[in-house]
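Quick one: structure for this chain?
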Amino acid sequence: MDNQTNAHNLDFCSGVLCIELSSQSPFFTGKAPPLLTPKVANDLADRVADDLNRLLEEGIAPASLVLAGALYDQTDVFRPGFPLLSALADFMRRAPRPAAAPPPRLALGANGDRFPIDALNPQPQSSFGPLALLPFCLVGTNEVMDRLFLDMEESLTRNGQASPATHATLQSAFGVPVINLFYATLGDLCAWLRTQMENNDLRELWQLLEPALFERPGPHQITLADGGNCYLLMDDVAWAPFYTFDDWARFGPGRGVSTGWLSEGYQRWLRQFRLYAVALPAYGLPLRRVLGTLAIQQEETAAVLAALQAAPALNEDYLIETAYAQAGNTPPARMVATQHTEKELDVIAYSLATFASDGELLSLEHFYPLSANGLGMIARLIQERGESQGILPVIRQPGWLTYSPTERCLGALDENDQVVTAPRQP
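Got it. Here's what it folds into:
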C-alpha cells in the first residue's frame, strides 16, 4: 500500500483496555504512573494485539494497531472530538506500509516525561481514579473497519477479559496494583460514563458532553431538573449564569420557591453550580460564567445564548454585590462581617455591613467566592477595608445562611444578632 497516496483513505475504530486498580493498596498513589519507554510500550502493544486476535471472531488483520505507552484518566479520553484517539489514528495513517509486510503494530513511547505528540500527553491531574484507561486504535480500509467495529461491539461486550500475560506485562510496566483487566468499546465506555454521572448528581452533564464529544453543531441548552441551573453549549464552550442569593430568589431559578425553602433551594442550586464548574473544564469544556439576569430566564435557546453573551462576564475569583450604599460621606464607626456557611458547601458568601456611630446602616455588601482562591481574597479584602477606616471588623459565624424570608434577600447579623437587610427603596 502506498502510504503517501492512501493514508487519507484509511478509517479507524477505537477500543479501550480498562484497568481496575486497588485504591486500598499501598502501591496506589492516586497519580498517573510515568510514561513508558518505546521498548516497554511495544511489548505491551504485542500483548494487546494477541488479546484482540483471541477475543475477536476474525482477529484484527489486516488492520494495524496503535497505542501510546500511558495510562489515562477518563477526562483525558473524553474530550471534544476525542483528540487523543484522532492523534493515534493520524500517527498510524502516516506510518510506512510496505506492500509485502504484515500490518504494523505501533506503540508510542516517551523520551522523558512527554510524548512528541502533544495530544497524547495526559492532562495534569491532581488525582487519578481507580479506573485507568489504555486506549488503542485499529486502522485500515473502510471495509475492514466496518467488520471490526461490529466484531468488537459483539465480542468485547460478551467477553473482553485480558490474558494473564497482558495482566503481568501491564502491572510490571506501570507498577500499579491491578485488580482486573478487560477490553471495552468506546460505546461501552460512553454508557458507563453516563451512568457514573447520573450516580454523582451530574446526570445532565452527559447532555452537554455528548454533543461536544461527537462534534454535533449547537447550540445545546439544558436546565438541571434538581436546582434549575441553566447551561448552554456552543462551539465547545459552556455558558452558565451565576445568581447571588437575592437575584436567585427574586427573579432567578428560585423565584417560585416558598419562603420556608429558600435556604435549602439556594444551597442545592449553588452545589450544582460548583460541581459543574469543576466537571465541565475537566472534560475540556471551558466554562464562561456570567452574572445572572432576567433576560436569561427564557426558554428559546437562541434568545438565551444572546442574553448570556450580553450579560456581564465573571472572570474574577469573587463577586461583590452592593445591596445598599447610603449617599453621603458619613464615616463608619463599626464593621460587621457575617460568614454564611452550610456543611456541604462550606462558605457560601460573606456579608459586610458598616454602621454609623448612632447605629444607622451605611452600607451592605455581599461577597461571593467564585474559585478556590476567592475565599482567601475576600477575607483579605474585608480586613483591608477595616484597616483603611481604622476599624477592626467583627466577624460573625452563625453556621447557616442568614437572610430575610419576607424580603427574599441575604442579610448580615448585627452585634445584637438581628438580621440587617438593605432598606426598602421608596
